[in-house]
Specification:
4-stranded mixed beta sheet, 3 helices, 22% strand, single chain, alpha+beta
């Protein structure tokens, strides 16, 4: 993980993600290299995304851990079949989200 998010930041990011639609869907083949590339590209573009993953809870947890480890992203929430992912844009000029202080 690139930076440790506080609980208040996670809560704020979940609120920001509420109106978003899922940009990536993890299908029956699970978390493939192609799916990881799509998630990586979406995080570079949007910073905060929703991923739809129709899988049992344990499998979703494993997917979330793999995404965090391989893409240096934070899972800020898992609600139903949705994973909410955040990764801060490395380039300050391209940042869309500024986390609140505190």
């Amino acid at each position: 993980m690139a930076m440790a998010l506080k609980g208040s930041h996670r809560k704020w990011l979940r609120g920001q993600a509420h109106p978003l639609r899922p940009v990536v869907q993890i299908g029956r083949h699970g978390l493939t290299d192609g799916t990881l590339r799509e998630i990586d590209f979406a995080l570079d573009t949007h910073e905060l995304i929703k991923v739809r993953a129709v899988a049992p809870k344990e499998e979703k947890q494993e997917m979330a851990e793999r995404i965090e480890g391989q893409l240096a992203a934070d899972v800020v929430g898992m609600i139903g079949h949705m994973l909410i992912l955040y990764r801060r844009q490395a380039d300050p000029e391209l940042r869309k989200i500024e986390l609140p202080a505190g």
